[in-house]
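Many introductory courses stop at the sequence. We go one step further.
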Amino acid sequence: MRHQQLIDSPEYKAEFGHWDVVELPEDQQINAIHAALLPTGRLLIIAGSGNDRAQFDAGTFRSLIYDPVTGQTRTVLTPADMFCAGHAFLSDGRLLVAGGTQRYEVLEGDVRLAAGAMRVKNEFPDAGRDFPEGTEFVAPDGKSYRATNAFTVPPAQKEIARDGSATVTASETVVWVEAEVEGAPGVTADPAQYAITGLTGADAENFYGLAEDMDLDKQDYQGIADSFEFDPVTEEYVRVGDMVHERWYPSLTPLSDGTVLSVSGLDGTGQILPGQNEVYDPATKTWTERPDLFRYFPTYPALFQTAEPGELFYTGSSTGYGPAEEGRVPGFWRLGDNTFEPVPGLRDPDMMETSGSVWAGPVQDQRMLVVGGGGVGESPLSTARTDVIDLTAEQPAYTPGPDLPQPTRYPNVVTLPTDEILIAGGSRDYRGKGQSHIFEASLYTPSSNTLRPAAESSVGRDYHSAGVLLPNGQVVVMGGDALFSDPLNTRDAEFEHRLEIYTPPYLFHGERPQITDAPAAVALGETMTVATPDAPRIDRARLIRPSAATHVTDLEQRSVALDVERRPDGTLGLTVPGEATLVPPGFYMLFLVDDEGTPSVARWVQVT
């Protein structure tokens, strides 16, 4: 009782902020795997199958629209299993969602049907062919296997030399196949060429399968190539061109030219892609593979567009899959010549999986912060480390930041209008084992590189959780997918459906500044006129890009400092930087912050 009185007191709230729990109606509760703030101010929460095999087997895929102002919700028709997809905002405010789940993992010992990857070849250059799910492949020894999904094999490539001679290179599509009989009789270690049942004549010669072996080993999750644009106005998914490669756990990084780079992920056979990266063009709504950008990263790598055109920074953060010794070093990836420059100084470099990454302060400062993390895979190791790097330094290197209150995996890291960064949630052990959830929250100040305590949350968060800044300056945190519900790890946990709203201290400091008028759009490099009755006390203005978060990864959020001019008529002139590398075109929340550090409610502005 006394504790509740303390945390509800005005003095406590003004220093530490306050958390409120929100429970949605039971029929509207959703496994919040992905969360994105739309330019309408509503949240798109994506579960897909929600890490629930029963939902996957039933073909039940879910998305939910949540309005944080009214509390109203609406279920959205979800045409594919977007569980563990990647996403990025486009310049028109649509959310690109690509990849997802083709198949759930099957642990060793539970595998009944021998299976493996079948490379399906086509030596005919004039036509490809579609094959249905269940297509049968037969080995020379009579063993037969069936495709678990429909697939398409494109035409072979034909090149004509100057002398008129032709060279034909067979095309290839990889598909997962399973034995038609259970157990050991379906196992083979012999590489073979497989005939495709039902093909005759030239087709039987041109189309065939190649496989190395079929076994009963563990089968990992498998990705899909499906891609959609979510329209924030109609609140519907619109199908666009498929990715070149199936991907599960990919990162989609917005580039300064408005295109989106898709990196990493598990393919359609459950293998991590060794480096095939591709680019989405919103103008044509198609993906193009970029062999010139062939580079390996672990799944969900944290890749950010820097101030330099054609340059991304890999913080070292990732989530999910990939060997511990490969692709873990942070550094600059220069797309022009596909070179990679490592950066030194990172502490606990072997504990960057499930760590958070975020711009530290306005993006013009070009400083990045990494937060917490743990060992690769199901490791019990975690770290309290925060490190900071100045990307503009003559020799960029990580330097120490303040330690978190305790070692933390899965932190939700959210940029606030005041430039502070909220760090909340997570667990000490893998997926909350041993009831290791962390309720302590912190506020990081980039200008002083310091950490101070915030109010403690009351709901444990870990894997499959997300934190998102709202236009009113609050933060909504959702999700949580612990393995167990007891300290001895004997009882399975249920997915956490409660939301929590964090109200930062700045909203308990008195009257907020107001924006009474602002343009709906502004071009790069332009100055916009903003009306406010509080112009004399406005200290700063920020554009904040809305979040699209999943798996401790949010490649969207960035804060942009605007030059502020106080005009004789009482309005403000706010100048947007001219570089698309700093301000990728799209929708932003415009905040005014007064001299007491209190932000306005945001206005949406589209930067063109």
